[in-house]
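Sample pair:
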Amino acid sequence: MTTIKSDLKTLLINNLKDINNASSPLTINNLVLAMNNETNDVFKKEIFDAEKVKDYCWNLASYAGQVKDKLGFITSDRNKLFEDNVLRAISVYKEKIIKGGESKIQFKEKSFIVKLADYKPEHKDLKKSPNKMVKLPLSELVNFADESITGVKKTKGTVAKPIFSEVVFNAVEDFKHAICKGTQLNTYDKATNTYGFNYETFIDKFDDHVVKDLNSMKDFIELLLDVNETAIAELDSDGNVKVDKEISDVHVVEFKPYTKLFEAS
């Protein structure tokens, strides 16, 4: 059995700094082994919550994702490689504690190894070598671990959708970059590390069409937040949401301009 000398905190901090090895199978496996040695309750099988384990790991590494100052400017960027590493390690760890001796993921010769029959059950090589073992790509770790736990394999052609929080984060970031990057709307004085705005540029770029589009987006966001607040307020102890018809009717009317977006999704 592979042994590990470093604790989880040390490994996470080193991985956060070491970009070159951020996607190494060995690094991920070391994180999994270190998680086995953790005594914090979040790692217990009975109450395992992947999101809480992720938060625990991020806190150990003093990592907070993207950080912005009061003006909304980025002071610390996301380390996507580190985040993916933590997610993959958590997925493998979860699969192993839940499946126990029936775990389908092995680590050998600095790679994650699985049975071809479990990974690609329709593969032509299985006729000659039914017990063939293959290397599992890092990009497949999370999906394979989930499939091992649930016993449900995605059908061919199924595209895994990112979690909703990731979709929203990326959409917001893309929007901000599109507005701010290279548009000369803001100024930056490197000598004093201060920011400002080119007000004349705003007048030039923010014509009636731009203002209309921004207000439309503002109304859409406010509607989403209002519906969410209503849902939270009307949530009962059984987990059901019962909204007064008068309120839901208002929401439906306000939502009407955006219904085509949902029909296409």
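The chain has a mean pLDDT of 83.
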